[in-house]
């Protein structure tokens, strides 16, 4: 069974529509919503295939994903774990194709990458393009994992990778977007089979971006800390 983890923060305009789209496209899906919004969305509790975790304050996307994976692992039938954003920047219509590729290639971990041949980014302002490019260049230069997109949160894990991530990263001091890079590094250095697949990334049309200057600065600081830990690891 497929478990899809969706971290949310003030996504009332998108989350119900996204759940509807997913359930139309994927049969036997288990959806875990981890919501950092102040106000609860109690209506989500009434949807049969949805588990709703309300945290009530902005604790970070990375920690939300880990909490969602941990929840999904409680159900033995869940075999593939997917994280995706709530704002439709990750197209649910790509799910089936990506799942098929994930299974065909017998992967442990798959990233829907914005920076491989066949990918496209639509309606991003120049500032976001530059920040993303710089972030991924620095991550690749410092961490040396042979992938192109360290920061896109449209990802696929098998059960072994999901369990490993919870075991090794659950108590990480990283909570925001830097945890995306930390997970990549953790799985790579432990020889999990990793790959990328092209994606069409579309800038949100409803709601507001959650990326701010503080998040960006914390991510850069976290990246340097990861680099230092990698140097220690190699010794």
Describe this structure in words.
The protein contains 7 helices and 9 strands; from the N terminus they run E-H-E-E-H-E-H-E-E-H-E-H-H-E-E-H. With 235 residues, the chain is of the alpha/beta class. It starts with a strand and ends with a helix.
Q: Notable features of this structure?
A:
235 residues; alpha/beta; 7-stranded mixed sheet; two-stranded parallel sheet; 7 helices; 9 strands; globular
Compact description:
The protein has seven helices and nine strands, in the order E-H-E-E-H-E-H-E-E-H-E-H-H-E-E-H. With 235 residues, the chain is of the alpha/beta class.
Q: Give the overall shape.
A: globular
Radius of gyration: 17 Å
Uncertain stretches: none
Beta strand %? 15-25%
Q: What oligomerization state is this entry in?
A: single chain
Mean pLDDT: 89
Number of helices: 7
Cα separation of the termini: 40 Å
Q: What's the arrangement of secondary structure elements?
A:
Elements: E1 2-8, H1 15-25, E2 29-35, E3 50-54, H2 61-73, E4 80-83, H3 95-104, E5 109-113, E6 120-122, H4 126-143, E7 155-158, H5 159-169, H6 178-189, E8 194-198, E9 200-202, H7 213-234
Helix pairs in contact: 2-5, 4-7, 5-6, 6-7
């Amino acid at each position: 069974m497929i478990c899809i983890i969706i971290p949310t923060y003030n996504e009332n305009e998108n989350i119900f529509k996204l759940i509807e789209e997913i359930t139309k496209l994927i049969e036997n899906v288990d959806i875990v919503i981890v919501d950092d919004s102040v106000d609860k969305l109690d209506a989500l509790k009434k949807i049969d295939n949805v588990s709703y975790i309300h945290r009530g304050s902005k604790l970070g996307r990375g920690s939300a994903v880990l909490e969602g994976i941990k929840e999904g692992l409680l159900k033995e039938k869940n075999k593939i774990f997917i994280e995706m954003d709530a704002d439709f920047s990750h197209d649910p219509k790509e799910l089936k194709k990506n799942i098929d590729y994930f299974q065909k290639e017998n992967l442990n971990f798959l990233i829907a990458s914005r920076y491989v041949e066949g990918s496209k980014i639509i309606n991003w302002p120049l500032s976001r393009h530059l920040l993303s490019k710089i972030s991924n260049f620095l991550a690749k230069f410092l961490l040396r994992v042979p992938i192109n997109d360290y920061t896109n949160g449209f990802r696929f894990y098998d059960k072994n990778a999901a369990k490993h991530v919870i075991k090794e990263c659950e108590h990480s001091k990283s909570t925001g977007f830097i945890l995306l890079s930390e997970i990549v590094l953790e799985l790579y250095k432990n020889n999990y089979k990793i790959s990328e697949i092209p994606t069409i990334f579309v800038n949100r049309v409803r709601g507001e971006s959650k990326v701010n200057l503080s998040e960006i600065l914390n991510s850069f600081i976290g990246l340097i800390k990861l680099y230092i830990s990698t140097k220690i690891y190699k010794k």
